[in-house]
Amino acid sequence: MNGVMVPADEAGVVEAVRQAVADHAPLAVEGNGTKRGMLRPVQAARGLSTSGLRGITLYKPAEMVLAARAGTPIPEIEAALAEHGQMLIGEPPDFSALFGTSLPATLGGIVATNLTGPRRIASSGAVRDQVLGVRAVTGHAELVRSGGRVHKDVTGLDLRKLLAGSHGTLGVLTEITLKVLPRPGGALTLAVAVETLEQAVAALSAGLGSPFGVSGAAVLPDGEPALGLHGPTALLRLEDVAEFLPHRSAALRGVLAGFGGVTLLEGEASGMLWRAVRDARLLLGGTAGTEEAVWRLSVRPKAGPGVAAALRAAFQARLLLDWGGGLVWVAGPATAAAHEAVVWAAQAAGGTFTLFRAPDSLRASVAVLPEEPAPLAAIGARVKAAMDPGGVLNPGRMRAGG
Amino acid sequence: MIELPAPDRSVLARREEILAALRTLLPPGARGEGVIGDPIRLKPYETDGLSAYRQPPLAVVLPETTEQVAAVLRYCHANRIRIVPRGAGTSLSGGALPLEDGVVIGMMRMNRILEVDYADRLAVVQAGVTNIGITQAVAADGFFYAPDPSSQLACMIGGNVMMNSGGAHCLKYGVTANNLLGLTFVTIEGEVIQLGGGHLDAAGYDWLGLITGSEGQLGIVTEVTVRILRAAEGARAMLGAFRSNEVAGQVVDAIIASGIIPVALEFMDRPAIHACEAFANAGYPLDAEAMLIIEVEGNLEEQDFLLGQLKEICARFDPISLRVAETAEESLAIWKGRKGAFGAVGRISPDYLCMDGTIPTGELPHVLRRMGEMSEAYGLKVANIFHAGDGNLHPLIMFDANDPVSFGKAEAFGADILKLCVEVGGCLTGEHGVGVEKRDLMPVQFLPHELAQQRRIKSAFDPLWLLNPAKVFPLEGNPAFAPQAVA
Ligand SMILES: Cc1cc2nc3c(=O)[nH]c(=O)nc-3n(C[C@H](O)[C@H](O)[C@H](O)COP(=O)(O)OP(=O)(O)OC[C@H]3O[C@@H](n4cnc5c(N)ncnc54)[C@H](O)[C@@H]3O)c2cc1C
């Protein structure tokens, strides 16, 4: 790759894409490049970074709306929100430990990958559901807008959702407007000591099916000895008005009593734990380096334990379950055989998978996402051509040859 | 008046042949005929919730299975016949308005609930199940399906998906898109595709997100997997009456700034209060300029705590009156007028247009003032009822449908309101969709190249533009109605 362009404004992004189209010289599109190791390696002549597009452009706390340029680092946005007692709803993960990087993620990167933290299980939805509007430069070298700065907008086809999670293959996000929310007054965690993953997921389902407002539901298959949690542990988080939590946690404890002993974690112990779940740091354990492969599967919660068992049977797997048991993080050997086991496990459970991190040799040689059925793949190819006819945006990032 | 495209004469000429072919695909069964061609029986399908526009279709088909939907689409695709999908036909934007040369695919017979799973908190239902039908199926076990459009007794989940419908409680629970896990989707070529399922988030492109709210432009939905949620322990409402729209707007700001997100925060202006009170006798304050209905959830103590705080906030704005429901019955009484609002306005004026723009909540006083001026200029009354927390306005413009001048003015007034919404940073439609109603206003919100981009996505799914054409996209630039396309 011949260097990375860092345009300072939207016009610069338009120009960079126009030039790439003219030169038939594809671009590797990124923010701070913290997730360069995700999915497939991009084959590109040049890099295009949005890290030069920085800053919050609109923040109306009373309207619960914040807009920022795509390259704005997440911590900068979180700090601005914290000043008004507000937060990003989607709990965007910080994968610097997972990918061995040091820079913070950018807003554009989080939206382009649609990566949502533990709060995904609550009714607030995924990051893409909190995106009120986007501005993006398509492969036609045109700036297009979808949505805007209001909370409800169903005008026209929802390109916001198409662009969110498209990993920079359909457009370069330049600015994003998000819905934000007041930070809950209090938070705590109930940790349930269970015997099996099935019991753990059943405990999470019981909690999520209660009226007490569980906003995080994860499983640590081997506990977290540093916090005094030994053996398989189900974690349930409550967040709400601080005054409500004593009653809610007692009531939730009642719901969980039949599943195992319950430990209460409050304050920073609870906060730290969920950040570690969010960032999948608990998966990494003591291991340093990024030689091992990491996959992320999403299945029906009930299928989570079966998937975990299948993976453990197939290879030396370390696991972490989130989203009520439906999000299965797994770390294992970076081999085609292990990958094959993941593909089968996801398919058998009717779910999906991502090869999240792997050495280039593996991620360039396997399908890092499930294959789509032929009619859908055909639509996908036409949509890609409709957004990026020259194929200059992140070629090969999601699928070989696409 | 919105222009409807000229029909394809060659299709009209083949009507009998088309009906016969459709009948072989959908033979009469236990639930009656699968194909309707008799002009009298086509009548009920000629319009939807935007009843000012009427057009009987070429035929209506009533499939009972995904396979039948696929067969009809395959046939229509092969024979270049246009399709208009239809749920309950409650669209307020004319989304289900038929075409003279088009086949309506009515989804009402696909009304079975296929699976309910409380552990995974989901239900799999056919597209013709009503919105309330999902909640009714799970309510006994304490669960509900969250998005609750006011039309929920009639409207169908397939229609909700295609409009990305909202409701009074979407401030807390989100709109349809937030509550979907999967779709069974049939392409115009008749291919059946399963998108998503019981799991969260797709690994590839977010087809589910793109299709949601696509107004029948991309394909037909036959089955939907929705999230179901455990209902809160209880809910209670309060009512605050204020001296001006500005003040009520400030109260909304103050509530959000306090960190309390009510489950519902509804705004009514003076004309709406009067219309609803005359209809429902809900005890609404007739001396108020604006009124808020605020609802909170939780157990009794939690409700008391939140209502107490909300009362304090309201009290800072010199309210005319504050009424906090003490019981569930009193809550229902507060909601009674709001829930019957459309009916109430219907009593003062038999005909009204329900607009649906969204604005930044901070612009509320300005927009309401301008709307008042327009109302005087057009000589037409308008009542405002809307979801205040999210800025989604529903101005109801009253007119007389027997008087073409009055209707013309109502449409022009509506268009001016929507242009104002865009001008202050909002949009043309927050939840009712573009349909045929706002089709020609699209250039107000989008630049030509942005519309072209959306059209290219439409073409990627429906290259021949057979699916619900003449909606959403202005006719100019609409390939289905380019002069050369009209044979
Ligand atoms: C009194 C009243 C109150 C209302 N209140 C609200 C409200 O609070 N919030 C709100 O959001 N809306 C509201 N609406 C609008 C309307 O009810 C919604 O848009 C609803 O989702 C439409 O559902 P339906 O089944 O009637 O669909 P239809 O009106 O039949 O169709 C809607 C659109 O979807 C397409 N379509 C329908 N089914 C399918 C399918 N299976 N596959 C593909 N395309 C399909 C149609 O072609 C059309 O474009 C209200 C309407 C009325 C009359």
Automatic annotation (TrEMBL), chain A:
<dbReference type="InterPro" id="IPR006094">
    <property type="entry name" value="Oxid_FAD_bind_N"/>
</dbReference>
<dbReference type="InterPro" id="IPR016169">
    <property type="entry name" value="FAD-bd_PCMH_sub2"/>
</dbReference>
<dbReference type="InterPro" id="IPR016166">
    <property type="entry name" value="FAD-bd_PCMH"/>
</dbReference>
<dbReference type="InterPro" id="IPR036318">
    <property type="entry name" value="FAD-bd_PCMH-like_sf"/>
</dbReference>
<dbReference type="InterPro" id="IPR016164">
    <property type="entry name" value="FAD-linked_Oxase-like_C"/>
</dbReference>
<protein>
    <submittedName>
        <fullName>FAD-binding protein</fullName>
    </submittedName>
</protein>
<keyword id="KW-0285">Flavoprotein</keyword>
<feature type="domain" description="FAD-binding PCMH-type">
    <location>
        <begin position="1"/>
        <end position="183"/>
    </location>
</feature>
<dbReference type="Pfam" id="PF01565">
    <property type="entry name" value="FAD_binding_4"/>
</dbReference>
<keyword id="KW-0274">FAD</keyword>
UniProtKB/TrEMBL annotation, chain B:
<dbReference type="InterPro" id="IPR036318">
    <property type="entry name" value="FAD-bd_PCMH-like_sf"/>
</dbReference>
<dbReference type="Pfam" id="PF02913">
    <property type="entry name" value="FAD-oxidase_C"/>
</dbReference>
<dbReference type="InterPro" id="IPR016171">
    <property type="entry name" value="Vanillyl_alc_oxidase_C-sub2"/>
</dbReference>
<feature type="domain" description="FAD-binding PCMH-type">
    <location>
        <begin position="53"/>
        <end position="231"/>
    </location>
</feature>
<dbReference type="InterPro" id="IPR016169">
    <property type="entry name" value="FAD-bd_PCMH_sub2"/>
</dbReference>
<dbReference type="InterPro" id="IPR006094">
    <property type="entry name" value="Oxid_FAD_bind_N"/>
</dbReference>
<keyword id="KW-0285">Flavoprotein</keyword>
<keyword id="KW-0274">FAD</keyword>
<dbReference type="InterPro" id="IPR051914">
    <property type="entry name" value="FAD-linked_OxidoTrans_Type4"/>
</dbReference>
<dbReference type="InterPro" id="IPR004113">
    <property type="entry name" value="FAD-bd_oxidored_4_C"/>
</dbReference>
<protein>
    <submittedName>
        <fullName>FAD-binding protein</fullName>
    </submittedName>
</protein>
<dbReference type="InterPro" id="IPR016166">
    <property type="entry name" value="FAD-bd_PCMH"/>
</dbReference>
<dbReference type="Pfam" id="PF01565">
    <property type="entry name" value="FAD_binding_4"/>
</dbReference>
<dbReference type="InterPro" id="IPR016164">
    <property type="entry name" value="FAD-linked_Oxase-like_C"/>
</dbReference>
<keyword id="KW-0560">Oxidoreductase</keyword>
